[in-house]
Design goal:
single chain, mainly alpha, 11 helices, about 230 residues
């Protein structure tokens, strides 16, 4: 069994998802950190919903939304001549939604750790909101950005339920690593299943070690500052 197309497709999907999530999650996390809007708990709940919602449920409703009978699916079909469901683009949309909390929450935590005094000092020195965010908040939150990137990439790499519902099992188009593992088990190709599963296991373990190390360094820095 040739596993490289599935690995390459998974890396592409995880990389694009990570980049898109950085663009979406950064302003969203900053808004959630700063706002006092009464709808904030509602937005936070929607962002965190993929953490508790069964992946197949999310995948089912995304599949319905991407149907040519719905506005989004019909628009995509008119623009591209292809269906959004069972396509790489559909997988990408599903992955962004499913991994959203893994990007937003680390950034939100990092932004909350930036003291108001630092921002007030930047404002006093003449920095506008964007200048203060770019020159003060982003450097102080770099570990949060790094954690968000690593977690969103790793989470996308290990998706199964959502990608199976939205993308199906099309070789070279939507068949990612997790689905390749499923196929290998179904065909009793346990050698391939072990190889891919062990790779994901080791990668996930290393990601968690990295995240905990980063969090430990942040805690030590705060203790030192106190």
């Amino acid at each position: 069994m040739n596993i490289w197309p599935a690995i390459w497709l998974s890396v592409q999907l995880a990389s694009l998802t990570m980049l898109i999530l950085l663009v979406i999650a950064t302003p969203l996390a900053w808004w959630l950190t700063r706002t006092r809007n009464p709808v904030r708990p509602l937005i936070e709940a929607l962002v965190a919903l993929p953490l508790v919602l069964p992946p197949t449920v999310l995948g089912f409703y995304l599949l319905v939304l991407m149907s040519p009978d719905m506005a989004l699916g019909a628009l995509w079909l008119r623009l591209t001549g292809d269906t959004l469901a069972f396509s790489f683009a559909g997988l990408l949309i599903a992955s962004v939604l499913y991994s959203l909390p893994f990007a937003v929450q680390p950034l939100q935590t990092a932004f909350q750790s930036v003291g108001k005094g630092v921002l007030e000092a930047a404002t006093t020195l003449g920095a506008g909101p964007w200048d203060a965010f770019r020159s003060v908040v982003i450097p102080l939150s770099r570990r949060g950005f790094l954690t968000a990137m690593v977690l969103s990439f790793a989470h996308t790499l290990g998706e199964f339920g959502v990608v199976l519902m939205v993308g199906g099992n099309i070789p070279g188009k939507t068949r990612v690593i997790s689905i390749e593992v499923f196929n290998a088990v179904e065909t009793l190709d346990y050698a391939t299943a072990h190889l891919l599963s062990a790779g994901l296991l080791v990668f996930s373990f290393l990601v968690l070690i990295f995240v905990y190390l980063m969090n430990g360094k942040d805690r030590n820095k705060r203790r030192g500052a106190e």
